[in-house]
Amino acid sequence: MSAEKLQILITGATGQWLHFYTHASTNVEVSLAGYIGGTVLQLLLEHPKRDTFEITAFLRSAEKAKKLEMFGVHTALGSLDDVDKLEDLASKANVILNIADCDHFAGNTAILRGLKKRHEKTGEVPILIHTSGTGVLTDDAKGDKVTDTIYYDSNPEQIESLPDTQIHRNVDLEVVAADKAGYARTYIILPGVVYGLASGKLVDAGIMNRRSMLGPLLVKAGLSRGQGGVIGEGKNLWPAVEVNETADLFLVVFNAALAHSEHPTPHGREGYFFGENGEYPAIDLCRAIANALYELGKGKSPEPTPFTDEEAMKYFGGYILGSNSRARGKRSRAWGWKPTKTPADLMASMRPEVEGFIADQAGK
């Protein structure tokens, strides 16, 4: 690695896994396959200071590694279970964009150990931009009620009031603790429901997936049961954010973090950034999917029907899709993030999502 260039390590650029830990005996695992991370990497490759960066992607696929190297990206093969390798890579980085599984405690803490090792060896305070999600805000509404509680990323005391048992929270706390200890400067980005078809050269090269998580998850369930569904009455609210605007938020935080010496920025407990631009009731999204399935001859009715308890466990590992997650990205906007896509764009994106998912299944 070149000592003169800024050493950037990115995880989750080609494959990201989210887990729904919603029941002691059930774990639903969903692949985002580099959906967010790949979109962020594309922006890094187009960054005005790209010539001053040396980017290393940590990934599992040797085939995708070869393709990435054609774009001038260094690669290291491994998974988040390879904690020694991950710790070593982290110890060599000035900046880490961690966009992999935010619930993999061993892998995430290996990154932190690597950053600590770098600090102890060089005195440098490296930067960590960690990806969490607004799932940390969820409740147990089961689709039947709306909560009045809205969380603001500009209110650290409110975020600190969250129970340690919330999903993602155990890793988020470790990240903030690393900042407090002084061996890393940390920022946590928490997107809501990310949607839209990703595009760009990494998609064209077959390196990253172009489809979101939630849409295909609901579509798959609808196809399996022959009818679009909803948790409870679908009254619960979630924030939405388009995939390219999500990546824009990462770049806003990245650029601000690099300019910290000239323009100091809050970090650690004050370094939370919600990715959202409006919220929607779950019934609206479920209705858009049910209607698309119906029009394509894959559903019995354009109106979603309630998932049974058994179906909720089977398809989602519980009731997380019936929870409320209400967030406001006040700090994100204060730093210059300017999203324009709204939940109306989310609803409009569902027909292409359904068509694409059905086409993918037919091609297998």
Give an overview in words:
- This protein has helices at 35-45, 62-69, 83-90, 105-122, 156-160, 169-181, 201-204, 214-225, 243-258, 282-295, 309-316, 330-334, 343-363; strands spanning 6-11, 17-23, 26-31, 53-59, 74-77, 95-98, 127-131, 151-152, 185-191, 193-195, 229-230, 237-242, 272-275, 279-281, 305-306, 327-328.
- The protein is globular.
- The chain has a domain at 6-139 and 150-209 and 240-277 and 327-334: NAD(P)-binding Rossmann-like Domain (Rossmann fold, 3-Layer(aba) Sandwich), CATH 3.40.50.720.
- The strands form five sheets. Strands 5-4-1-6-7-9-13 form a seven-stranded parallel beta sheet, sandwiched between helices.
- It is of the alpha/beta class and 364 residues long.
Q: Which structural category do the helix and sheet elements fall into?
A: alpha/beta
Average residue pLDDT: 92
Name of the CATH architecture of the domain at 6-139 and 150-209 and 240-277 and 327-334: 3-Layer(aba) Sandwich
Shape: globular
CATH superfamily of the domain at 6-139 and 150-209 and 240-277 and 327-334: NAD(P)-binding Rossmann-like Domain
